Amino acid sequence: MIAAAANLIVALKNKRSNTDSAGAPLYEKIIPRAEHPISRKNIDKDALRVMQRLNKHGHEAYLVGGAVRDLYIGKTPKDYDIATAATPSRLRKIFRNCRIIGRRFKIGHIYFHDGKIIEVATFRQSAAKAEKSTKGIVRSESGVILRDNAYGTPQEDARRRDLTINGLFYDLKTFSVLDYVDGVKDLKSNIVRMISDPDLSFAEDPVRMLRALRHAGRTGFRIEDRTMDSIIRNHSDILQANSSRLLEELLKDLRSGAAAPFFKAILQAHLMGDLLPVLYAQLLDSGSSHPFWRRIETLDDRVRGGSEFSSPISLSMLLYTTLFTEEEFWDASQRISPLAMKQLHNNFQKSTAAIQVSRRDTERILQIARNLSTFNHLLRKARTPGKKLDKNYSRDVLDCLELEVESTGERPEMLLEWSRTVQNNERKRQAKRAQNGDPEDSTGSPPKRRRRRRRRRGHGGSQGGKNN
Predict the structure, then answer these.
(1) CATH architecture of 196-300
(2) According to the model, what pLDDT value does residue 68 have?
(3) HSE-up of residue 370 (Cα within 13 Å, Cβ side)
């Protein structure tokens, strides 16, 4: 009975007009459950609940994007995105745990108790129609879309996405896959292709160049010639994108377990020269023999094995060879000299000019680099590094050293010596706290600061404390 009803809905949908609201022709194919591999048992339960609740309130809602792509090829999605007819204001009324974010395009984040976030976006209007709307697309002088909050239909929304393999929708009501962009064909052929004209698409959002290269690197798919030619031709336009978005994209890849193929792809497409100019110059000189590749492959291995690293540690491994100072900049007391510190800061600024690293993360990265440089120098001089290192960054440096030793297979005594230093420092800190009567938790972190009790005010006057 349910299957028959689902087939009827599919048949009715297939009779829809193949033009959008602006009159543009649309490809449309609806694939019934029997003809695709996606099963709802493999979909995150909270994502299913979000779609069910939206449907219950009378709104179309579909699983979209990378989640559908991954499920179709038998992978487990990391994130779940949903597209719906419900506007952001409606999302806030339907979901008490919803927060609306974004200025460029408003998106609803549905929060769950385990820290999970399901992202929900309203269907976007076709570009042609949105350009004419007073609430539609707002562009910069270079053509980059700054704001895009005009809403449309599922078909229009699919055409506004970046890649054909990311343009598939999963309909929970009929268990069917909606394909308005011929994405299944490219998915089966292992091809990465832009939905619209690549030059126009990259002009609207240059970050799409990174995403095309990312998907090719992660899946092993081939980038279609027209798309690849456009990336190479327009690579310098990546600097038109917001610098904080660029940093976010790089961090996604550093945490993906597939950073090495991504960085090889942006190197070949010349995007690395725009994003990471100092590293780009080093890699051009050394080629595949550069130690950067071993470090990134080691990082990938650790991430695929379940390890998680903070942004400063990930970025430290990315920028490792661009930051360190030369041996000649050490002073007689075996401390890094002011000249070396100045060079370290200058190197960091040159290496990260295109990406917006927060002040806090910048401080941690520079401290990690300084400590690693100090440690390496003192080991070369057969000196004990213990008292010359910043204890607050010991764990970060230990993580970086583990990655470095794993990637090179050299000087494991560095890691052993540092581990001893960290353990000794922690024992001394714990002993000192115990002597002072300060509690400490099992992780060795300092106790949380107690809130001062608020003193009761007197009944008859403005002064606190005891009544007068």
Answers:
(1) Orthogonal Bundle (1.10)
(2) 98
(3) 24
Please say whether the beta carbons of 279 and 319 come within 8 A. Answer: yes
Tokens of 298: 């080691």
Return d(Cα 105, Cα 124) in angstroms, integer: 9
The two structure tokens encoding residue 153: 């239909």
Q: What is the dihedral of CA 356, 358, 359, 363, to 10 degrees?
A: -100
Residues annotated as catalytic (active site), given as ranges = 79, 81, 162
- Could you tell me the residue ranges of all domains in the chain? 1-189, 196-300, 309-434
Given a cut of 70, the residues of the chain with pLDDT beneath it are 1-26, 127-149, 324-336, 375-394, 411, 414, 418, 438-468
- When the candidates are 3.30.230.10, 3.40.50.720, 3.40.50.300, 3.30.460.10, the CATH number that belongs to 1-189 is 3.30.460.10
Residue 192 backbone phi and psi in degrees, to 5: -100, 120
Strand 176-179 with 168-171, pairing: antiparallel
The maximal CA–CA distance of the chain, rounded, in angstroms, is 85
| Alpha-carbon radius of gyration of the chain | 27
- Residues whose CB falls within 8 Å of the CB of residue 74, separated by 6 or more in sequence, listed in order: 37
Beta carbons within 8 Å of 117's beta carbon, 6+ residues apart: 109, 110, 111
Length of the chain: 468
